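Batch job 17 of 40 flagged for manual review because the log was empty.
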Amino acid sequence: MKHPEQATLALHAGSDLGWWDAWKTARHVARCGDCRDEVADYQAMREILPELNDVPGMPWNRMASEMRANIRLGLTAGECVRQAEMPAREMPLFTAARTAIAMASVVALVVTGLVLEHPTPSIMTASAPIVQTTADGIERRAGDRGFALRSGGARDVTYTVGAQGTMGARYVDPDTGTVTMTKVYVE
């Protein structure tokens, strides 16, 4: 059986416990003789305490009022030096700095998305070779010079593009019926 602490028994003797703790302690004291004797001793002590107030040379009332005054003074001094912390629920939701950081983050995200979605083409010089398809075939240009491979009016032309700058065309020649394959390299 677990016994209540001494402080709990002393508070029970003076009827100073809350209702739940008083009920639990009363149930224990009803079954435990040792704790019942302890509570009786505390009650006896409480009966002789008023007599101590009459002890000559001890100004108990003055000491009690000084202690209360010192406690009040300490609490007031503590309030003066305590740093005021604003509880989270009283802080403004949006401060200027938070708003600026959030807006800068949104702008950076939008700009990054636009750059990744639409990359800028590399600046090519006028003399850089270019291979491209035309309505009539494949054309290679470098500055003002160029040549073209025409498909001769073929309807089903299949174009292929290579990573190294090649372009090819495959089609059936309408005049001869032969399959023609062309490939142009950029160097």
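Reviewer: the log was empty due to a logging misconfiguration, but the result itself is present. The beta strands are 129-133, 137-142, 145-150, 158-161, 166-172, 179-185. Unflagging and moving on to job 18.
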